[in-house]
Every structure is written in structure tokens, then in C-alpha cells.
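Appendix B, example 12.
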Amino acid sequence: MTQRRSGFTLIELLVVIAIIAILIGLLLPAVQKVREAAARMKCQNNLKQLGLAAQNFHSTYQHFPYGKSPSYPGINSMARWSTHSQLLPYLEQSNVYNALNFNLPPDMGDMQFDGTGCPPYTNPNGINSACNTLISGFQCPSDPAPPMVPAPNGVSYPGNNYWANMGTTFMCDLGDTNPSSVSPGATPNGVFYYESNVSIAQITDGTSNTAMFAEKLRSGGRYSPRTSMMLIPNQSSLIATHQVCQGQSPDTAISICDGVGTCWALGETCCSIYNHVSTPNKLTCGGIPFPGSMVNMDMDVPSSSYHTNGVNVGLSDGSVRWVSDSISLYTWQALGTRNGGETLGADW
């Protein structure tokens, strides 16, 4: 009697392996899409919470918090507080907020500016060490940069992906009572800027048509054309700042800051506040040298993300919206201003 064989031939085994490989090849992109969709939803929720926190702050004080606090005399001029530091009690972070002493500047890491003088600052006796607290709600899960970035002073600082909107304000420290001598006609028009004190009534373009927060990639302390701040000659107008910055080649541009997004407590265009000079996922630039103080330093600090072809934007009514990289410059700049009277384009 003939005995039936068991098992597979080599050809059958190879066919099965090939089929499994094909299935895995089809499955992995689907899994990656599901993960990215989940990360994008988490990111949108983080922005939603920031928007709600800002609304609750406004309900308490009848205005939104500043984008940047004033500098502290005799101390590193860049060591000033961020919007985020003021929103902590409304984000279930009262313990961190209560541990901070706002009579002194925030602790800050070395922003790794090349030769422009932005060393780290740490208060004596551990005051404001709570600035080094990692707050997960300030970080997008799609960003591959490490949550904590070590600075040359040996301290690791917690990163931030959600930045406050300066509008088309392109002079770094421009404020309502802090004019620029380089661009004397420039006025701040975002929701957050140097010593800002904006109320909902001042958002005359409509809260659903005005950005409040948007994503910005963290550099992780290393050079990258996508995340580092590039050097441009200092400019005196919005148009020139945009054209000169975006006219550079990312392969030859010189970095002046590789520490973008490393301190949520720091109210600065390297860490917590962006503008609408250029559309999302474009180069970031700072003008050097500039005369006098940073109110005369022009900046192009666009929103950016590792999501596919766009960024999440939190609007001033508390809602969150996806914005494509292909949005026109006109519409993006109109979205950034609170009182420009523009009509948003058909691509909104």
C-alpha cells in the first residue's frame, strides 16, 4: 500500500514564503498609515487643549497671555517667559506653574547659535528648574526628535512642537510699545508677540479665520535644513524677509541655530513663537547682524511638521484645522493676521 507523504516540497515552501512577504509588504504601509492617523489625531487634540487653555485664560483675565515677557535687566536678554508658561494652570499643570518664580527669568538651554551669543542661563539655587519638566501635551508624536535635548551645559531641556502665532510680524521683538527703527511702520498683528495683551475683541478678522497655535518641528539639537534657523542679511520688510529667506538653497544656507524648539518655557522665535511670513514647511531664517536690540532683527519662522504634506493649526475660536503645504502665501498670511481685514482665499 502506498504511503501518503507529509510536509512541503521546497517549491511549495518558497511559494508560501513569497505570499507571506507580499502580504507583509501590503500590510506595513497600511499599519504606518494607521499609526500616522492616530498620531495626527493626538496632535490635533494637543492643539485643541492649548486653544481651550487660552480661552480659559482669556475668561479669567479678559485677554490672552503675552507671546514674550520682557527681558530681565542684567541677564541674558533672550531669557524671557513664553505663552506656554502662562497657560500651565489651564492645562492641568498647576504644580509646574506654582514651582516657577516669574520674578526671575526662565532657565534656558544653549540654543546653539553659531557665534551670535545665546548661551544657556540657569537661575542660582535651582530656582525655576521646573522649566525642565517634560510636558507631553507640548510634543507631537510624529516628531522624531527626542523629548529631552541635552545642552552643552549638561542639562536636558524639554521640547515644544506647538508655537504661538505672531501673525506676519517679522521683527523679532516688535510690540505695541516697542517699535522698530529698521521698519518704523511695522505693527504687530498676531495674537501673541512681545508683551502682547490681545483680547478677543481685537481679533476683528474673526476667531475662526485667525491662527492661534500651529506645529513647528523640533531640531533635537542637530543641524537639519528642515529644522535649523538659517542666516540671512537683516531685512527691513515682510516681502524682502520672505524672498531672501526662501531664495536660499538649503544645501548651502548657513545655520545660526540648531536648538529649535528645545525649551517650552522660553518666549522666543527659536522655541515657542512662529510667524506667517512664509507658508508651512519652508526654511526658517533670522537676520544678522541687526542694529541695536532684537526689535530690529527680522525673522521668517514658518510652521512645520512631519505629517504628510501639511500642518495642524489651532484657530482662535478653539477649533483645529488641517492646512496643506500648498496653501497660497496670500491665504496663509491672511490667516496669521488678527486685524488685516483680508478675505481668505478659496484654498482655505
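Residues 11-336 form one domain. The chain has five helices and eleven strands.
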